[in-house]
Amino acid sequence: MAEKALRYLLVTHIPFARNAAGDVVLDSLWARDLEGIAQSGWHVRVCAPELRSEAAIRTWGPSAATLPKSGPIEFSGFPPIQRHIDFWKWLKIRSVLRLEVSEADLVHSSNVFAPYVGLAYAHDYAVKLGKKTVYVIAEDFNDMLEWEWVRLGDSPGQIARRQRQVGALERRSRLSASTASLTFLHTPAAVLRYRLSARNGLAIRQPGHELDDVISAADFAVKSRAIVEGAPLVIVAACRHKPLKGLDLLIRAVNLLKRRGVPVEVRLFGSGEQQDSLKALAGQLDVTDRVAFPGSLPPGRDVYRAIGDGHIFAMPHRTTDFGRAFFDAMAGGTPVLAFRTPASLETVRDGVDGLLASLDDVESLAASIQRFHTDRALLLRCSEAARDRALCNTRSEWYRLRAEWTRSLFAEENPGV
Asked: φ and ψ at 24, to 5 degrees?
């Protein structure tokens, strides 16, 4: 019996807009995720805030993408919530959600952020109707928000209010996980925090690369020879330049290494609110000859190539959250250097495809880089292990597994599927 194209409704707070031709404009990384879901055989419909113009789109990375209006992914918009006085819009939003949920076979939602906590209504309504539901906890948002939002409050009262809001978000996520047909926990930290709340939870580590993105054998051989011959190490970081990324600690580690006579070159790809202060710090520490700011790169092939040109990928993230950067590094055949947190402990295999330094410890970070500098055999083994892992841990493979696990929810109802 042929597989049925099940109606897959994805409810999200991530906005989109339509251009003059009616095509959909959205964040490029998000677009890749949606295309991966659609390629798994679902009839995908996205229900999300619809902005008035494409100029209003703000992306996580450096670029936006355009999906055709007549493509395999349909979009249903609802009014965006931009101010606390927009509460009246929720009547319209709930009306849209009820219609979309009632016509879906499966409803997919995820942990949301203020002011979109009310989107959990779609999950609750789907449960009420007996629909299959998928819930995704995409990061350890508690630690992330605590670090860069709660603790930076202007007064004890504001800090307390923000703390209560984070607590409400966590309770909402626990409730959704407890009633979802299937919960995907996207980070090791999310597994630790929510596994006992999820009725049916699975850890998932979804990379962004495909086999064609992995550094070629020929290019990897060239890099391997440079490692063995003792070339100065090139350290690459590719991320938004924000305080929680720990790039200032990396620059301070480079200063320590320079004083020890260890030659390294650091390339800090990306941009963001902290970039000017990072450049100033490099000047103050007299490492501008060793720290470069090449700018942002579009996601995909250019990022993998830039990482592949390096010998170490540094991600000194200061919270327990992480994105796909660990796996991007491995696609470049580049071992990861990160701080030891619940996120990295269960992702980077210390001494196998990377090294883990003590959290927030500049000396430990510098020592790890120096260890790779002096032990080239270790660096080469870690580089080989990283590339080997990337060859079997691809985006397509994870989408195949996700589709298989999700379709299994319908197996008893549709024995022929």
From this structure: -95, 130
